[in-house]
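Anyone? Bumping this.
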Amino acid sequence: MDVSAKKSSDELDVPTFSAENLQSNMKIIYYSRTFLSIVAGVIAGVLGFTSLTGFVFYFLIMAITSVGLAAKAKFTVHAYFDSWNRVTLDGFLSGLMSFVLFWTFAYDIVHIF
Amino acid sequence: MGLGFTVGAIGILILSHAAYSTIQYRGLLKILEEEFSGPPLNVVAELLIGLVLCMYAGLCVPGKFLSIHPDSDENRIVSLPANVDFMVFNHRGKVFPSETNLKLKC
C-alpha cells in the first residue's frame, strides 16, 4: 500500500526532461526572433509605416515566426519544449525593442534624410 | 550553416537594395514635386522576397531543435565501450545473485 502510493507519487512528479537540450532550443528561438524582428523593423521602416500600423506589422511577423518555429518542431512542440508559451511568447518583448530601434533607423535613413 | 547563411546574406542585400531604390524614388518625387503616398510596386515585391529569404535563414541557421525527452531516440546512449572484446561473462561471478534494480546514473 505504502509502496504503491510512493510509486504513484513518483509517477505524478514533475516530468523529467533534459534541461540542457531545452536551453539550447530556447537559445535557437531567441536567435530566430531577434533576427526576424530586426528584419521586420527594416521592412516597416522602408515601407514608411507610422504609429499603430508598424506595431500591427510586428505582431503579424511574430505570428508568422511562431508558425514557422512550430513547423520547425514538426508541430510536436511537447517533444522539444515544456509548453506552447515557449514557442509563441518567449522573446517577444526583447524583439519589440530591436524592432522599434531598426524601424526608426530605416525610416530615418529612407524617408527623412 | 552554409546554405542558410548565404540565403540570409542575399536577403539582407535585397532589403538594402529595396531601401536604396526607395531613396531614389523619393528623390524623383522631390524633382516632380509630388507627395509620397506609398512605395512603388517593385520595392514592395523586393521587400517581400527579402522577407521570405530572411525568414528561411532565420529559421534554419540557428540549428536544429534537440529532443528534451530522456528516452527519445537521439538521447539514448548507444556507444559501447572500446574494450568490449576483453569482457568475459563466463566466470564464477554468475553464481551470485545479481542486482537487477541497478540504474544508469545520468
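Late reply, but here is one note on the structure posted above: Confidence is low (pLDDT under 50) at residues 1-10 of chain A.
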